[in-house]
Amino acid sequence: MNERQARLLLRLYPRAWRARYGEELLALLTELGEDEPIAARMRRDVVRAGLGERLRAAGFGAGAPPAMRARSGALLVLCAWMLFAVAGARVQKFSEHWQGATPQSARGVPAVAFDVLEGAAVLGGVLVLAGVALALPRALAYIRSGGWRVVRRAVLRASALTAVAIGATAALAVWAQQIDTAQRNGASSAYSGAFVLCALLLVGALAAWTTVAVSLARGLELSSRVLRLEALLAGAICASMLAVTLATATWWGALGRVAPWVLHGAAGGSPSSSFALSLFLPSALMAVATCFAALGAITSLRAARLILK
Amino acid sequence: MEAKTRANDPALLILTSLSSGPKHGYALLQDIAGFARVQLGPGTLYGAIGRLETRGLIEALEPQGRTRPYGLTESGGDALAAMLEELRTIIDVGTSRLKRPARLTHAGASA
Q1: Does the pTM exceed 0.80?
Q2: Where is average pLDDT lowest: A215-224, A260-269, B21-30?
Q3: Under an 8 A CB cutoff, do B42 and A25 touch?
Q4: What is the dihedral of CA A207, A213, A219, A220, to 10 degrees?
């Protein structure tokens, strides 16, 4: 392993850790590499330890104070929700007009599952807003007392990205008015490309604001009561995400049995597979996000119990 | 239940190695491989060094070029003694039980 590769591996570690131990670890790797090439096992060890240090720095280590773990867990749920919302938006787009394409007699189970999906998604969104509102007074106080310097760059980046995303979406909407339905649905590759670009900009803006929220929350001094409430909200948000994921799977399974053509936009009654890649990918992303949320909620709730003691 | 000390715990191995005098990273790895036959990874080693230093069980000495030797602090010595005592209890229990005749001979049958 040459110095450049070793320095690349060091990037996996948190900045503060690198500042303290980076040169020493680099020297050790160089010394180990002098006699014989560094074994893959050693490289994996450096990678695993680096990711572990990242988790510890984010407050997930066993040695971190309960208040820090409760906050980090809740923040992981927030990030997971962001990912979930992106995937959910794709599922929402996919499921548009499914009722119209499904015979009345076959709508029973899919309709119930879809109602649960929508209800749980709305509930999750409300709970996320409640979590944000709960921390807002402290966040404003933090910004006024010098925290603005910490988040200024992230806020400006998120604002710029949001302005670009809104502008691009508005332009796309105007363009959509001037072309026909077939072109809007994929016949025009230029429009499709612009649509994907807009979607990426919106996802980027959402991610940028999530980064702002995480940077802000890290600097907040939250009371035990607020932290406990945030942990409970994290648990409830995770439960709503699980409900949405299960309801999506149920809706998909039921629809695939009674009206699979809907999943492919095919004519009513035509033979179709119940598997649809464009539904599978966002559903898988939702499941992954739910797993991350569960990890965050469990961490937060366990730490909150310790705060109670 | 409190976590018990494991014989291959990096913290225990590092503290044991430093009990014979200060060492830097490479020397620690060599020493540990010699007395415990455990090849610690570089990331594991420095992760454990960081945690031990945070807890005040070891301290960094004057840097020697890019490396920096570490030495055992007084509380590090106490912590090592407590860990060894914990291990000794397990060793004593295991040794005394081995001396008893009630051991399985084959296929779950008691001798």
Answers
A1: no
A2: A260-269
A3: yes
A4: -160
For residue B104, give how far its alpha carbon lies from the nearest alpha carbon of chain A (Å).
38
* Residue range(s) defining the domain that contains residue B87: 10-94
- Can you give the CATH number for the domain in which B60 is found? 1.10.10.10
- The answer to whether A63 contacts B51, with C-beta atoms less than 8 Å apart, is yes
ipTM over 0.95 threshold: no
Tell me which chain A residues have a C-beta less than 8 angstroms from the C-beta of B45.
Answer: 28
Domain count, chain B: 1
- pLDDT per position as a tens digit, A191-248: 999 999 999 999 999 999 999 998 888 888 899 999 999 999 999 999 999 999 999 9
Q: Which of A31, A34, A36, A48 to mutate to test the interface with B (most CBs of B within 10 A)?
A: A31
Question: pLDDT tens-digit profile of A110-134?
Answer: 999 999 999 999 999 999 999 999 9
For residue A83, the tally of other CB atoms under 10 A from its CB is: 21
The pLDDT score that the predictor gives to residue A273 is 85
List chain A domain ranges: 3-50, 62-308
CB A9 within 8 A of CB A46: yes
